[in-house]
Design a protein that fits this description.
Helix content: 25-40%
Number of strands: 16
Bound molecules: NADP nicotinamide-adenine-dinucleotide phosphate
Low-confidence stretches: 485-489
Largest sheet: 10 strands, mixed
Shape: globular
Mean pLDDT: 92
Structural class: alpha/beta
Order of helices and strands: EHEHHEHEHEHEHHEHHEEEEEHEEEHHEH
CATH architecture of the largest domain: 2-Layer Sandwich
CATH topology of the largest domain: Dihydrodipicolinate Reductase, domain 2
Distance between the termini: 23 Å
Length: 489
Amino acid sequence: MNEIIFKKANSPFTLIIFGASGSLARLKLFPAIYELAKENRMPAEYKIVGYARTPMTNEEFRSNFEKSIKKKEKHVDQKVLNQLLENLFYVAGQYDQEDDYINFRKELKKIEKTRNRVRIAYFSVPPMAFKSIFKNLGIVNFNTKKTPLRLVIEKPFGYDLRSAKKLQKILKKYFESEQIYLLDHYLGKEAVSNLLSLRYANPILTTLMDKKYVSNIQIFGLEKSGIEGRSNYFDHVGIIRDMVQSHLLQILTYLTMYLPEQETDEAIHHEKARVLDSIRIKNIKTDVVRGQYKKYLDEPGIPKDSQTETFAALKLEMKHPLWRGVPIYMMAGKALKQKWTAVVIEFKPRKPQKNRKNLPPNRILIQLQPYEKIELSLLTKLGGKTFDFHELTTGRPIYCSGDCLTEHGRLLLDIIAGDRGLFLNFEEIFAAWVVTDPIQKMCSKKQKRCKDLLIYDEDSLGPKAADDLIENDGFSWFYSLPKNDKSNL
Ligand SMILES: NC(=O)c1ccc[n+]([C@@H]2O[C@H](COP(=O)([O-])OP(=O)(O)OC[C@H]3O[C@@H](n4cnc5c(N)ncnc54)[C@H](OP(=O)(O)O)[C@@H]3O)[C@@H](O)[C@H]2O)c1
């Protein structure tokens, strides 16, 4: 086995977190920063600077940071945490006031001991605040030769194709494309990038992944939790923008794109965009099911007449030469029976399945969450003289045994190193909006109650119409929900 190289941040940096008072910062960014410090992956010189409108002192910011780590981690290394806290600072200001940015830049210069460093502006604010920050960062030049600025923007980029293009236009006015890191944190998950590696490394997956053999593909992004207090974010976005437009379509690209000969970032982005460009929803009325969980309207901060969907099931088609005619089904939702992210590839029936309708198809299951595993469903002879079959399932968990990090930690190291391979490009984002925009238009906000929005019970598998969607084509959802105990890990 080759020696494992553990990636470290190799240059001094300042990480500016816009919206440092919010939920993404608390739940994802702070723990990722602590993880990098604990694993000794930070450079000697770095600063983390929070910026938001909420008034806070450095001490209060450090105390919030510490609380969020202690809430998440069972065993905290207090020495590491104390050293980290010394590198934390906070500046309060508005997002749309130029003077506040002039003041912020002055404060930054005091905080940063050395000039030669990468500056990273992380957008941990809701999309409506993006425009002001882009503009002011550009006008009050935070980007200098000695302190090159990189902008990190979380998905969803925009609200639809039109708004995404507008945002891009503003960005391009002030920044070069190499400075922009469009982040979908699923691409930082070891399990998701492994999808592509599995296909590169295993002829069984390379050869069989073709319309000649595959009857249908199912992609699941199920959540047991509801919106977890993120009403401000979620009610504006909904599950289609939150999960389908980004995470699930990205998983589909890794699963179905041509594997380019050259594994360059450009070649991979190009093939991903080709897949996305080829996806369409044929009949928006019959191929989309939208749902809302029963207690959604009782969640704090959710308007009583909200028509935001918390569940979606869709049927997609691809014009891509490898996949023409193979239906792709996606299901995503909140407050469901179990957390489960998985891909199921079902194969066309062979003679035994054609003869006996109750025999299951051959399948490959690639489970990404709650833990990674790969499973193969085959048919094997029942035994005795009859030529009869039963199902044989063989599989095992996949362990990360190399350079393992959580997604935000991994992506932060890539940003510091200037490595853009795991980030999206505008072409992919625009193509994904083209797929989902027609669904958003189905349900105009002006309607009192969307006819198509189906109410479903919490702890279920969504509305019954989702089953009809796939069963009408002669298939069924293949749920292989893991048992709650993890003794098989
Ligand atoms: N939370 C997640 O798990 C998650 C996952 C994927 C992507 N994202 C993306 O990450 C970004 C941040 O999400 P979040 O959940 O952290 O958001 P959030 O908690 O609602 O907002 C973060 C901070 O932004 C400021 N803010 C809130 N509403 C604002 C408004 N209308 N205009 C200007 N500023 C506002 C607030 O800080 P001040 O009032 O102190 O300024 C707030 O603390 C969003 O772009 C979201 O799409 C989040």
